[in-house]
Write a structure and sequence with these properties.
Radius of gyration: 21 Å
Helix content: 40-55%
Largest sheet: 7 strands, mixed
Order of helices and strands: HHEHEHEHEEEHEEEHHHHEHEHH
Distance between the termini: 22 Å
CATH architecture of the largest domain: 3-Layer(aba) Sandwich
CATH topology of the largest domain: Aspartate Aminotransferase, domain 2
Strand content: 5-15%
Number of strands: 11
Strand order of the largest sheet: 1-9-8-7-4-2-3
Shape: globular
Length: about 400
């Protein structure tokens, strides 16, 4: 029965029955004339979630990492310079990907728990008078540390130096859960995936690409075949795919968009803020600290929480799984053994989050953590009750 418990990892997220059923479709001909009626609305609807009117939606059968590779290989050439800050596991992995592709990666080292350093980006860009830097890479929501960075501040830093570099943003664990403003923030490529805010199975990399980034394809010399933007766009224009598409995920994406729009994107974002704040209230009641260094950095999709000195966060998450059949996020990279993560994104409600808080509390009590059993749950309950006059309605 434990497989009926929700997961509290930062993704893949819980899949609502409505979406599981939408993906249970029989094989269909993706080269049939009517496939365009399925694909085109999905691409158009996804633009609204990115907050873009001018961007081009491009999808690939892949996870978010495939989206990173597509962004880099379609717009850059061997030896090109990119600027990126390392402040968590996923910014680190993006650095590794760029280095493997032979790019000149200029790295700004930051403390884990901090966000994208707009001021340091500004200095680096102002010093780059020859405009060697071709792209600035930023992780919007650092899943390893529970940190949300200010993308608009990074764009302002770029504009202040009148630098022509492109802005690439990883929004894998933020899109469809927190506001994203592709056009307003001046993003050139945003990379996401199907398995987090969209509440689907893993397997679809989802990108929004600006006209400026599309123009960069003409001079980019990094090799690409499977991840070729042009091949995908040309096929999509006639309602097709350059190879076999992830048909079940496309049907699931169509229904996911229906769910998000039925709930209303503003309501989706408010729900995530509410769930996150409930978790933060519980964390404070336990006497534990978030990895995120300050409130403006707090993520609304995942909270990374330090365990007390002398305790092992991996032992805690293992015990929660083995004893109670519930998964929580382990500490990644520098957080390994030091912090656990509570994912609170996708198909979740107040009641479901309370079950997760109760479970991790029991696990901590079992392992003799210095907490009072029920303290975190009670704090979250009081917060969730505050101002509540009617049951929360969600499409999830």
């Amino acid at each position: 029965m434990s497989n009926q418990n929700p997961v509290f990892i930062p993704g893949p997220t819980n899949i609502p029955d409505r979406l599981r059923l939408a993906m249970q479709v029989q094989t269909q001909d993706h080269r049939a004339p009517d496939f365009v009626n399925t694909l085109a609305p999905v691409l158009e609807g996804t633009k609204k979630v990115f907050g873009s009117a001018s961007g081009q939606i491009i999808t690939f059968p892949a996870s978010g990492t495939g989206g990173w590779e597509a962004a880099v290989t379609n717009t850059l050439s061997p030896g090109d310079t990119v600027l990126v800050a390392r402040y968590g596991m996923f910014s680190h992995r993006w650095i590794d990907l760029c280095q493997r592709h032979g790019l000149d990666v200029r790295i700004i080292e930051c403390a884990w728990g901090s966000g994208a350093p707009a001021d340091q980006f500004a200095k680096a860009l102002a010093a780059d008078t020859a405009h060697q830097i071709r792209a600035v890479l930023v992780t919007h929501n650092e899943t390893a540390t529970g940190v949300r960075s200010d993308i608009s501040a990074v764009r302002k830093a770029m504009d202040a130096s009148d630098h022509p570099a492109m802005l690439f943003v990883d929004c894998v664990s933020s899109l469809a859960s927190m506001p994203f403003a592709f056009d307003d923030w001046g993003v050139d490529i945003a990379v996401s995936g199907s398995q987090k805010g969209f509440m689907l199975a893993t397997g679809m990399a989802i990108l929004c690409v600006s006209p400026k980034a599309l123009a960069a394809i003409e001079t980019a010399k990094l090799p690409r075949t499977f991840f070729d933007f042009k091949d995908m766009m040309n096929a999509n224009a006639s309602g097709g795919f350059p190879y076999t598409p992830p048909l079940q995920l496309i049907y699931g994406m169509r229904e996911s968009l229906n769910m998000l729009f039925e709930e209303g994107l503003d309501n989706v974002y408010a729900r995530h803020t509410r769930l996150a704040e409930g978790v933060r209230k519980a964390t404070a009641a336990w006497g534990l600290d978030l990895v995120a260094q300050s409130p403006e950095l707090y993520s609304d999709t995942v909270s990374a929480i330090y365990v007390p000195e002398g305790f092992d966060s991996n032992a805690l998450t293992d015990h929660a799984f083995n004893a109670y059949g519930v998964s929580f996020g382990v500490g990644l990279g520098e957080m390994n053994g030091k912090a656990f993560r509570i994912g609170h994104l996708g198909s979740l409600t107040d009641v479901m989050v309370l079950s997760g808080l109760a479970t991790i509390e029991m696990a901590m009590a079992d392992l003799n953590y210095p907490i009072d059993l029920g303290s975190g749950v009670s704090a979250a309950q009081e917060y969730f009750r505050s101002g509540r006059t009617t049951p929360m309605k969600t499409a999830a």
